[in-house]
């Protein structure tokens, strides 16, 4: 069984560096690019089909030469037997219609596969048009918003569960003859029912990781002449869509600062606990504060070098935790009369001030070889 997955590179909006030309067209060659997140679900569907029915998986993309990295990401994160990049200056600035014409020509050159998978929509255009338009060019049945599927090779059909009008609460089961086009919904979840399927999945992922290290050996690049396409019908010239304006998305400014504190610095640690105490304990302290600089509350919590709740395992940072309270979900969980620390010993501790000036403490695990000789348990 041969399956094809269509993927696309989209601007990495996390970087906030998106470049447009004077006509409002995205300059993809100058913009940091990642694989479209929704395409991961199409890759999952193709990998599930490969595990259950064998065959091969082809991943295809259209874009500038830099999209080779997108194909590499697809191969390493999921699985692919071969990669195809459709790339040409004549294809630049294509809208969804011109893109669909180009992709359908590339798929036809491969030989019509049994299944073609595409993501729900891209993170840049947000139209969701390219998949259905490519399907229309190929004159194939289409299944959209698919959340699960199975193939009956003998009957030559694919049966899928899909969301009705994209509504997560309403689903229906549909069937189509092969070859078919499938739009995977973000709710798609692959299933591997047998041990043999799970073993095959593990083996295929290992093979894909090895291939991705030398992905160029599995990559084929086609231009418009390879596909016998007329430049007047592809790229900008073949795009009926006119971009009226573009509003760039700026990178969000950082609003927090962190200070790293070593747990061996007793003075700094004392300042941390003094800063955290009012927020963790619900107040600025109690009248029962110990004279030695520690804080003791009615719940029996005392701090000098650390926190002692009475009968839990002790670690070398001085944190003694009541085991019965380790199910508490927060790093510090406070009741009106007690302060409790979750049993997670730090090697570094950061005090983070948010916009409300309420600090938070971040712990990272301590290496096991620093454990107390008395058998103290690391958490």
Automatic annotation (TrEMBL):
Pfam families: ETF. InterPro entries: ETF_a/b_N (IPR014730), ETF_b (IPR012255), Rossmann-like_a/b/a_fold (IPR014729). It comes from the Archaea. One of its GO terms (molecular function) is electron transfer activity. Residues 286-298 have a biased composition (Low complexity). Residues 299-319 have a biased composition (Acidic residues). Residues 23-231 form the Electron transfer flavoprotein alpha/beta-subunit N-terminal domain. Residues 283-319 are annotated as: Disordered. Signal peptide: none annotated. This is Electron transfer flavoprotein beta subunit. The lineage of its organism: Archaea, Methanobacteriati, Methanobacteriota, Stenosarchaea group, Halobacteria.
């Amino acid at each position: 069984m041969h399956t094809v997955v269509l993927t696309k590179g989209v601007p990495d909006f996390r970087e906030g560096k998106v470049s447009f030309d004077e006509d409002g067209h995205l300059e993809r060659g100058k913009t940091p690019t990642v694989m479209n997140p929704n395409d991961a679900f199409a890759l999952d569907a193709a990998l599930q089909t490969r595990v259950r029915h064998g065959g091969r998986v082809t991943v295809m993309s259209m874009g500038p030469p830099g999209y080779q990295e997108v194909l590499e990401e697809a191969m390493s994160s999921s699985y692919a037997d071969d990669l195809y990049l459709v790339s040409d200056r004549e294809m630049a600035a294509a809208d969804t219609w011109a893109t669909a014409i180009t992709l359908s020509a590339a798929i036809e050159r491969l030989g019509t596969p049994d299944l073609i998978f595409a993501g729900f929509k891209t993170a840049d255009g947000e139209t969701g048009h390219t998949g259905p338009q490519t399907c229309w060019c190929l004159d194939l049945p289409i299944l959209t918003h698919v959340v699960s599927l199975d193939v009956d090779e003998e009957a030559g059909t694919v049966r899928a569960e899909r969301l009705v009008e994209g509504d997560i609460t309403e689903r229906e089961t549909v069937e189509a003859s092969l070859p078919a086009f499938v739009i995977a919904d973000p709710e798609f979840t692959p299933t591997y029912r047998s041990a043999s399927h799970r073993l095959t999945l593990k083996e295929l992922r290992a093979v894909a990781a090895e291939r991705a290290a030398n992905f160029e050996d599995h990559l084929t690049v086609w231009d418009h002449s390879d596909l016998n396409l007329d430049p007047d019908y592809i790229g900008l010239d073949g795009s009926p869509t006119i971009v009226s304006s573009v509003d760039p998305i700026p990178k969000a400014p950082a609003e927090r600062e962190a200070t790293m504190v070593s747990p061996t610095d007793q003075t700094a640690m004392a300042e941390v606990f003094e800063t955290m105490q009012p927020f963790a304990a619900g107040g600025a302290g109690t009248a029962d504060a110990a004279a030695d600089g520690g804080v003791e509350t009615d719940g029996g919590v005392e701090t000098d070098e650390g926190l002692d709740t009475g009968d839990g395992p002790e670690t070398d940072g001085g944190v003694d935790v009541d085991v019965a309270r380790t199910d508490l979900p927060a790093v510090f969980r406070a009741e009106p009369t007690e302060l409790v620390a979750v049993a997670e010993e730090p090697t570094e501790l950061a005090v983070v001030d948010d916009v409300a000036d309420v600090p938070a403490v971040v712990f990272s695990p301590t290496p096991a070889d620093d454990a107390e000789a008395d058998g103290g348990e690391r958490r």
